[in-house]
Amino acid sequence: MKNNSITRGLALSALAAGALVAPSQPAVADFFYLLPAGTACDFNLGYAGTGGNLQIKDFKDADGNVVRHLESGKGVLLTYTNYGSKPKKPVAGESITIRTDGSVTETVYNPDGTRTVTATGHNGLIMFPTDIPEGPTTTHYIGKIVFTIDKNDVFTLVSTTGQQVDVCTELAG
Fold first, then answer.
1. φ and ψ of 91, to 5 deg
2. pTM for this structure?
3. Rounded to an integer, what distance in angstroms lies between the CA atom of residue 22 and that of residue 138?
4. Among the four 41, 44, 107, 150, which has the fewest Cβ within 10 Å?
5. Across the chain, which distance is largest between two alpha carbons, in Å?
């Protein structure tokens, strides 16, 4: 499975000095993903977001290339659900729902083709088995997360501060 920024719950994008600002775009936060066992947790994980109000801004350089991407919002309900371990017949089990009181995600596109993501507020971060540290893990953070993404979409967690909830452990019971 190719690593996907939306699937991981964080919008990935970018920034640079002297960038041109694109108009703000309101967005709806409703989504649902079902991730196979071994990807985000040891079981099939449902990940849904509903409601809320998101604002998206892209910053571009003089050549029109996006160099920074910002997403901010509040009021999204995030629901994580254990769908068991059967790959072809997932059945919903335990869920946890977290009301987010806001978040901001900034993605900076680096000259070497990597991206640096800084997320503050309420954010879920899914680490796949190909990431550093190696997943599968799904953690909901209230605070700050910094990670990089290489050209192959491998996430490397740089730092975290604040509270965290190990979603897989919470739902494994």
1. -125, 130
2. 0.80
3. 32
4. 150
5. 53
With a pLDDT cut of 70, the percent of the chain lying above it is 83
- Mean pLDDT score across all residues of the chain: 83
pLDDT range class, residue 30, cuts 50, 70, 90 = confident
Question: Phi/psi of residue 168, each to 5°?
Answer: -60, -45
Report d(CA 13, CA 169) in Å as an integer.
Answer: 30
The mean pLDDT of 28-39, rounded to a whole number, is 85
Ordered DSSP codes for the chain: ----TTTTTS------TTPEEPPPEEE---EEEEEPTTTSSSS-EEEEEES-EEEEEEEE-TTS-EEEEEEEEE-PEEEEEE--S-SSS-----EEEEE---EEEEEEE-TTS-EEEEEEEEEEEEE-TTSBS---EEEEEEEEEEEEE-TT--EEEEEEEEEEEEHHHHHH-
167 in Cβ contact with 80 (< 8 Å): yes
Q: Mean pLDDT, to the nearest integer, of 69-83?
A: 91
